[in-house]
Amino acid sequence: QKEVEQDPGPLSVPEGAIVSLNCTYSNSAFQYFMWYRQYSRKGPELLMYTYSSGNKEDGRFTAQVDKSSKYISLFIRDSQPSDSATYLCVPGGGFKTIFGAGTRLFVKA
Amino acid sequence: SQTIHQWPATLVQPVGSPLSLECTVEGTSNPNLYWYRQAAGRGLQLLFYSVGIGQISSEVPQNLSASRPQDRQFILSSKKLLLSDSGFYLCAWSAGGTETQYFGPGTRLLVL
Q: Nearest to residue B85, comparing CAs of B42, B38, B50?
């Protein structure tokens, strides 16, 4: 079983849509959860960081963590063409950080 | 503020040739440093990490090696490249004791 799994996509949505990106992980020792955004041919950049179950909001982005089911989500409201990128789910803990393969998102103008 | 540099941005090398990729970090001291490889459509594979000068941990046995000659310099090398070494190489840093990693712009390597 992979330590972190994401649907690779691509996910294509119209501008203004609400986007839901999901991820599951297997290691119950993971204590922190991050989302990175990676534009084509660029390095990943940190988008969201959370250390607990529940929701964390930052502008149009909301990260949701459910440790009991080992399920992580990222919601994007009012999606924009500039949100078109690959989103990496990154759980970690116990001196280990695992980068998911990412979900490709296309937001059509 | 901290910045991380990688060069070159793109590299095309023949099979069997040597490799040297360099990464430097500015604006911080004693960072943890990482080398990753990202194959097309795949996740990030951790190759090496370093918590200090001369301290290198290898995650995956392979054709590559890493060195950290200075606090903020991390070098990825190979004596003889293989076709399977092609990929997108990313350097990252984190502050000691923290989890967040910050990535450089990457080097795209094509071995022919």
A: B38
User: What ranges do the domains of chain B cover?
Assistant: 3-111
Going residue by residue through chain A (109 aa), what tens digit of pLDDT does each one get?
Answer: 788 999 989 999 999 999 999 999 999 889 899 999 999 999 999 999 998 889 999 999 999 999 999 999 999 999 999 999 999 999 988 778 899 999 999 999 9
For residue A48, the chain B residue with the least C-alpha distance is: B100
* Domain B3-111: homologous superfamily in CATH: Immunoglobulins (2.60.40.10)
Number of A–B residue contacts, CB under 8 Å: 37
The full 3-state SS of A42-99, as one line of letters, equals CCCEEEEEECCCEEEEECCEEEEEECCCCEEEEEECCCCHHHCEEEEEEEECCCCECC
The CATH code belonging to domain A4-108 is 2.60.40.10
B84: distance to nearest CA of chain A, Å? 19
